[in-house]
Each structure stands twice: as C-alpha cells, then as structure tokens.
Amino acid sequence: MSGTIVSAGGRNIEVSHPDKVLFPDDGITKLDLAQYCARIAETALPHYRDRPLTMQRFPDGIGEDGFFQKNVPDHFPDWIKRVELPKEGGTVTHVLANEAATLVYLADQGCITPHLALSRADRPGYPDRMVFDLDPSDDDFGKVQEVARAVKAALDARDLPSFVATTGSRGFHIVLSLDASAEIDALRPFARGLAAEVAEAHPKLATVEQRKAQRGDRVLADTFRTAYAQTAVAPYAVRARPGAPVATPLRWDEAFGSDMAPDRYTVATIFRRLAQVEDPWAGIDAEPLEAARLAE
C-alpha cells in the first residue's frame, strides 16, 4: 500500500501504511495520529523545543507490546534535529522535536507517546521543570484531586506558582517552571521534602513509598523524576490507552472540578477544548522560579 502525504511546517511527510490501526477499540489509524500531530503542533511545540525526546513506540498498535527508544535510528532524515548527551558509559543521541514535521515523522514511526526531558539540550544537568507526579493506587480520582490540593497548598505557602496537567493515564502532573540555575542533584532534597511533608500531613491519602506493596490505596507523590535524564510525558501527547487520551494542561480550577478525569480529553475532543480555552501553560516560561532558591 502506498503512503499518504501529510504536510506540516512546510515539509511533506509520507506516512507509510496509513490505514494501519493503532487503537483497535477506536479505529484510530496511523494517519489519524499523524494528522493529529500536524494539527496540535502549533500549541504543543513551545513545550517541546530543545528538549531531548524519548520515543514510546507501538509499531503494531497498542494491542501489542511497545518499547521506549532514546537513540535516534540511522534512518531518520537529516533535517530532524538531534542532540548528543552523556550517559553512563557513553553517549545517547536524542531527537529534538523543534518543528511540526518532526512530530508527524515520529507518528509515522509508530511513536504514539513522546516523553520530554525536564531540562533543555544545552544544559542537561540544570532542569527548568520540576514535576510532582501524582500516581494513584486505585481508580478513585477524587483522592488524586485531594492530594493535588495539598501539594498546591504547600507550594503556595512558599510563594511558588505551579501548573497542573492530566497525564492522560491515571493521575496529575504538578509542575514548577525553573530558571535552570541549579544542578538537578541540588534540587532533589526540596522535591522529596515537600512530598514527604504532604504525605505526613495526609497519611491516609498520600505516600512517598516507592514500593507498590507498601502504598495500600494511597496516592504516590512521586518526585523520582528529579534526577538526571528523567522524562515526563509531553503536554498534548497521546497516550497508548483505549480512547487515545491526551495529556492535557489545565487551569487549577478545572483540575478540582467534579467532572475532571485523567483521561477526560482525547484526540477526538482536545481541539474543541482548545477552541474554547487557551493553552493554560502558554505562559509557563514567562516568569520562571529561581531554581537556586529551592536548592538552598
């Protein structure tokens, strides 16, 4: 079967096997995913630019096992930007999704979910994001919302403005925008300390226990991403779950709504939302927090 051309950012990307179904319960094809990427790029790319990207690929659709891939394959075209970064025992070359066509090309490669580094390519050890990942142990999303209130209150008490997004999976990400002035290891005590404070204040709701067997039905306030080369799901990324939910930035008042769910927005509904609500993270980099202050 011949491919279908998807135009994005002045480039024409051939999507091979466009009718391949990636989401069998929903009939969503590879072409549908590529077209979604082309359309969401205007909103999403400011959050992607210059961030090393890890691909979560499902070449045969979400009904089969997928895999994570950091290193750029040799066959990727030269126009896709890359960055080579150190890792233990060598280096790894990541994609930089700095243009819409890159997102479309990744979709053609079966990359359903991009994950982004919390630092920019030019300062990999100095993050400009801190993420508190609220990961539930059961399907009671109300508990996630209550823990999110507690995390936000702890941050507010320190005069630290925060941002929130659904993960498109089961929880919330609460994010601080930083100025990349502190090394990541120096930030870890603050992140862990704040999470522990919340867990101690709400012992029936929240935990920092990494072992699932010790969590019970509590929400994990996960700060493990405050480490070198860690990633978080990209804003507006599609998750490899039935319904094709989208990781969606929210206003805080929306996050606490009784009708909110971690998979509320999907590829079928996200553009209706964006037609009514400006990206709540559009100004996330306007006034970054002084990271060195958190490292004191």
UniProtKB/TrEMBL annotation:
Top-level division of the source organism's lineage: Bacteria
InterPro entries membership: LigD_pol_dom, NHEJ_LigD
Gene3D superfamilies recorded: DNA primase, PRIM domain
Chain ranges of the DNA ligase D polymerase domain: 29-281
Protein name: DNA ligase D polymerase domain-containing protein
